[in-house]
Amino acid sequence: MITNGAVVLDGGSKDIDFGGLHPHEVMTKAKVLTEMHHPAVIAAVVRVRKTGILERLAQWRLDDGMDNSVGGRPILVHDLAILTGLMILAGEKKPLLITELRELFQHRLGAESRTLLELPAPATTFAGHLAEEKRWYNNTYNAFHRIVECMNPYPYDMRFAKTHVAIKHIVDNHDTERASFFKARLDEFTERFLLMSFNEQPRRLRRVDDKMSLSIDQTFIASPTTKVYSRKTLDAQAAEEAIINDQAKLTPGAVDLSNGFYVKSGGIRGDDRPGSVIPFDAKNANRKTSSVVYQRGYALTIAVRVDHEKPGSERFPHLAVAATLAIPNVGASEEAIKVLTSAIKTGLKPGLADTDKEYFANAIHERLHTPAVALGYVPSTDYRKDREYREAASGGALYVNDGLFCPATPEPMLTATPDYLNNRIDKETFRARINARLPYRLIQKEKPDARGKVPMMCPALGASPTVVCPIREMMKTAAKKSRPEIEHDDIPAELDRICKQHSVSFEHAEIQKRAQGLVYGTEKWETFHQYARNGIESLNAQIKTGGTSDIQTASRRRTRGIAAASIFSAFLLVQHNLTRIASFLKKEFEEHAQILVRQTVPALRSRDAHWTNAYTATTPNVVIPIVLPLSEPPLRT
Prior knowledge:
Elements: E1 2-3, E2 6-8, E3 15-17, H1 23-27, H2 38-51, H3 53-63, H4 79-91, H5 98-107, H6 111-117, H7 129-149, H8 164-172, H9 176-199, H10 203-206, E4 211-222, H11 231-242, E5 260-265, E6 293-306, E7 320-326, H12 332-343, E8 349-355, H13 369-375, E9 378-381, E10 390-392, E11 398-400, E12 403-405, H14 411-414, H15 416-421, H16 427-437, E13 443-444, E14 453-457, H17 497-500, E15 504-507, H18 508-514, H19 523-543, H20 562-599, H21 606-610
Parallel strand pairs: 4-8, 8-9
Antiparallel strand pairs: 1-2, 2-3, 4-6, 5-6, 6-7, 10-11, 11-12, 13-14, 14-15
């Protein structure tokens, strides 16, 4: 019974005076809770069902032997309600917290929405509201973690800090095969939601181009817990703790073992093979501790769609089409291949794959280049200044940057890239040398054969030679035009097969390892690369702190573990995509409306419609009657 701010609890005689606060404000801690518009709930439900993830969750539980039909208390909050609730909270730009979900389910849904999500009506009386609030929280918490359990690569208790002895036991008994299997489920979860958001575009935007070109980058996602264990010191710390019998004397260790050190600045980011026992921090052991800035959390790899045909144009919104969350410094190449594979599910053909210096310019070919090319992508990358990118090829040819070149190519042209990256030449000189080097590329004679061999010939041979060489005779049918002439001093002292034979066979796979979709250093390459990097960096800035999603701030998603972080990242990226699509369509609509306004004949002002205006040279478009007096006016005296 509520009367003038006084509430009787359970029919008792003791009244509690809340002063000027209403009991409902006390229940919600003075938080203004607005009821969700039912059409918005319907839209979120439809999008969740489009992903097909509900059926996959049910199948995963069956595969894992998790049968809910064997008895027990019936489930109050189902998967559909949890996923719909997260979609709604992400759309409202609210923190993805269990308490926010609980408030949504308990206070903010109408009767129709509850029926749609199969949620019961909450108790509305103030008496016993604490128990009701706890009941909704526990059921929401359990429902969310039932989803997490289906995809969690690290299934251990994350509620409390662990001793180093316990951490060592978990690490030593970690099932890497199971972890990879469940990590694949996490990736599928993210893939399904991002694919759904991609398909929310009109078909005309999805199919502007039949190829999918991507810009890939890794960004930092903070962990709710900041303590990280080190494999380098774990054994020693566990041994020290093992001889201490007093639990109170032990120092609490890490809570979440799936996060790691992410180099923010001053150090080298790692790309260790998955399952590698080499500690990442050994790579920075020779650096001053004060010069390396670390962050603790996860690494989110994102692929954004970019326009390779018309860089800088706005033919479609730049959406995150694929993403995956992993431990920093482990498997960066493999994570990139995952997003490249996921992007193919859009139904578009693979195009260019643009990255920064941490990927194609740094990775082992077998881990990144070869599988990326096998998927159909063509790399596009900048180069690192600490490498020459110059190797000897079979037959006497040279691999330089992204192509095969004649061994008589002038030395300044061969060293143009490291000279420019190390500030030994300016950009204008670099561009001139890159363009002057193009004629010295070997000419592909035929397509690769069944054995993967491709014949290449000297650039001074064939029907369309690009250079003139003193040891090669040009065909008489070759076009008469100016060509660079090879100097005698640049010709090798000992001629190899490329200088003596008509053609030399090369491994096509070896050429593809180094190839780029656009010739490195040219104006066309630079235009696309800068545009692609701006596309991914713009997305990173918008989803991080201060952006539309605030994906980086751990206090907005306090549930621990990489599985929960991956789920939250998926919803925030989906909402970012929906926001970009809506902004793109709104801009199109506004431009169309402005065209219609310009096509509409403006209404005449009153003075122009009724009077002649000598200044503007306009006459009225209506006939104004002229009234003549019947008699002459009287004379003025």
